[in-house]
Fold this protein.
Amino acid sequence: MHAAVGAPDSGETAHFRALENLYRSAPINQLFRSEIAISEPGRCTIDFDVDESQFHAAGAVHGTVYFKMLDDAAFYAANSLVSDRFLLTTAFNLLFTRPIAPGRIRAEGRWISGKRRVYVAEASLVDSHGEEVGRGTGTFMRSQFPLSSLPGYRG
């Protein structure tokens, strides 16, 4: 997987598109209006919409939305470097830096370290005004599940 990034039929590009298909195929993502993009190794963005249906009883976005999008962006950034196995989140640390208002949010995931068994990646949430609203760092480990065995990965 050392083909040029963005080469139309390269193994790397095909892997990125397959991971994007895997994201879209996950049943949990039926609950979130979101779009994923993996454009280079170790990077991922997920744009998603937040509305009142995701609020807790006190009228602000529930923390599960922060976690889900931060974890997904960091996970897919890390799994973009692994073409044979599905990774699993083994730990995730998250910071709520400000409340999320309804609107479009971007989760930006970046791989930090690790290229064998354990991967470390971080993600930040940025609102439509360019303000960071959340940040997290996760560790991800190779699972026993081959990516090729997952129907969503195959497209």
Summary: The domain at 11-154 is CATH 3.10.129.10 (Thiol Ester Dehydrase; Chain A).
